[in-house]
Write a structure and sequence with these properties.
- By secondary structure, this protein is of the alpha/beta class.
- It folds into two domains: about 140 residues, Cytidine Deaminase, domain 2 (3-Layer(aba) Sandwich); about 220 residues, Dihydrofolate Reductase, subunit A.
Length: about 375
Amino acid sequence: MTDQAALDRAFMRQALDFGARGQGTTWPNPCVGALVTQDTADGPVIVARGHTQPGGRPHGEANAFDRVGPNAAAGGTLYVTLEPCSQRTIRAATPCVERTILAGVTRVVAAMADPNPLFRGLGFALLRTTGIRVTTGVMEAEAQRAHRGHVLRVTQGRPMVTFKVARTANGYAGGAGGARLAVSCPAASAWVHLQRAHHDAIMLGIGSVLADDPLLTVRLPGMAGRSPVRVVLDSHLRLPLDGHLVRTARDVPVWVVATEAAPIASETALVAAGVEVMRVSAGSDGHLDLAEALQLLGTRGITRVFSEGGPTVGEKLALAGLADEIIVSTSPNVLGEPGIVAVRPALAAMLADPDLYALAETGLIGHDRFEHFVRIS
């Protein structure tokens, strides 16, 4: 690796890390990280950082240029985690390619191309026509993972899904009959809240709602505003009107996905309480079609879903090829009697198959051990 290649990777790593700060706030747009460097006698230094802002605008490059001020980027290098956009939109009259050219940078380093085949490579080509040197593919694998939700929404019409389940040392997520268990230690619970904040939506099945009456908000100091949309998979519209989710629906959005046959009266009552009800087809088992539900979320702009939907939903997602990342958290505590199995047999077999899932990382969060699996594309 040349010195320049090493520098490019180091700066792109920072752009990726900076971009990750906005995850969960920028949908329907990807959270792009960008930074601008200038050469000095002591080597290149960062003069500005930016990432896509809440609601998706301005984009990361524009945010970085706004921070650096007029002319300060001239002659510098722009590092960006995704190909700069080349098309004008209603919300942004000036695409990032144009902003980059006007800023006067002489080099652009990008991690990956636009996944949309209509625009892939166009931004790079336009930059090159003005004499800007363009280097692509720097830390591309890392960028593909960071932008996986955006890529899947563009190419498959659905968001990426991370399924998370917590279990006792002997493998149970719930007590006998579905009784609620406080499985995770405080540090692991706080980490889960942080994961919620970095996703556009939290999704769970109605069974988990009925068993736990969860709130599903981000309850970390100063981060209440980062609570994502709460999505309930509720084929027959059994969501209780007096539960935490419905009672707080006007504070943090609650979307319920039901089948076309679910009772109209139940929908009317939920809508009156501030819940949005959406309908999809039913599968052969009478329950809603998960793939269609995720496609529906994609049309609403959702790119990243954190599923805390319980073992049954998690296994169904994996079997349907819809669980892109799976996090299994294991407590050192033991349940003294048989309960609800956290990782059901079919899911366990899939996680053990190296052709289906790769173990991306493992470690400790407080007293709990976690394993993070990534689906192999």
